[in-house]
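Q: Please design a sequence for this.
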C-alpha cells in the first residue's frame, strides 16, 4: 500500500488524538505499526478506517480507537511482561511490542495463531504466540505485569488473577447481565485492587477450548 504512513498519521489525528488519547508513546506506536499488513488482503484498503474489520474464522480486528484505548488503559512501560488473550490478527500485540513490552499472546484458533505469528515475525516484532485456551493463562511465563483480554467474558478468568505480579493491571471487556459490554480496568496493588469501569464496547466472546 502506498503512503500507508500518511494514512496511519491521519488515523492517529482524526480517530485517536481527537478522542482524548494524548500519550506520546501510544500515538507513536500507532503511527509506526502497518495496520494494513494485519488485515486480510480483501479488506486492506479499509485498514486505516474508523471501524473494526473481519478476520478469518468469523473473528474481528478491533477499531483502531478501541485498540488505542485499551493500550492506554493498560499503561505499559518498556520491559514489562504482558499477556494478551486473543491474538486475532496480531495487531494489538504488535502495538504493545512496539512500545517495548515483552508480549506473550494466546489464540485458541490454530489458523489465526499461525497467520498472526507469521505476520509478527516477518515484520520483526518479538511477540510469542501460543495456540492455547487463554482462560488458563500461561503459568510457565507468570507472573505478568499486564494482562489484556481482547474477547468479551462475564468475569476475569480466575487463572489470570493467579498469574499476575503484585502491582499489575488487567484490561478486559466484560459482558454485563443486560447484554451490554464495558471495558474493565483492574488495578492491582500489594494487598487490594480497584476496578475502573470504562466505555461501552462490543467484542467477540471469549470461548472455551481450542480449534485445531
Ligand atoms: N487482539 C486482536 C483482536 C482479536 S478478536 C487483534 O488485534 O486483532 C478476539 C480473538 O480472541 C479471536 O481471534 C478469538 O479466536 C480469540 N479468543 C476467543 N476466546 C479465546 C480464548 N479462550 N483463548 C484464546 N483466544 C481466544
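A: Design:
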Amino acid at each position: 500500500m502506498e503512503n500507508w504512513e500518511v494514512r496511519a498519521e491521519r488515523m492517529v489525528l482524526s480517530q485517536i488524538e481527537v478522542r482524548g488519547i494524548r500519550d506520546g508513546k501510544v500515538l507513536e506506536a500507532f503511527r509506526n505499526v502497518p495496520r494494513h499488513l494485519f488485515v486480510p488482503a480483501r479488506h486492506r484498503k479499509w485498514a486505516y478506517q474508523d471501524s473494526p474489520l473481519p478476520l478469518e474464522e468469523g473473528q474481528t480486528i478491533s477499531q483502531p480507537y478501541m485498540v488505542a484505548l485499551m493500550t492506554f488503559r493498560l499503561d505499559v512501560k518498556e520491559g514489562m511482561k504482558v499477556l494478551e488473550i486473543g491474538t486475532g490478527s496480531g495487531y494489538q500485540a504488535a502495538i504493545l511490542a512496539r512500545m517495548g513490552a515483552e508480549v506473550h499472546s494466546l489464540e485458541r484458533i490454530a489458523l489465526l495463531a499461525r497467520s498472526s505469528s507469521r505476520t509478527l515475525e516477518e515484520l520483526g516484532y518479538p511477540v510469542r504466540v501460543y495456540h492455547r485456551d487463554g482462560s488458563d493463562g500461561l503459568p510457565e511465563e507468570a507472573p505478568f505485569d499486564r494482562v489484556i483480554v481482547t474477547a468479551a467474558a462475564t468475569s476475569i478468568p480466575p487463572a489470570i488473577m493467579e498469574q499476575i505480579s503484585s502491582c499489575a493491571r488487567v484490561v478486559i471487556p466484560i459482558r454485563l447481565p443486560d447484554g451490554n459490554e464495558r471495558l474493565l480496568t483492574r488495578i492491582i496493588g500489594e494487598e487490594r485492587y480497584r476496578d475502573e469501569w470504562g466505555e461501552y464496547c462490543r467484542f467477540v466472546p471469549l470461548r472455551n477450548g481450542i480449534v485445531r
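Q: Thanks. Anything notable?
A: The mean pLDDT is 97. Strands lie at 53-54, 60-61, 81-85, 102-107, 128-131, 144-149, 164-175, 181-188, 193-201.
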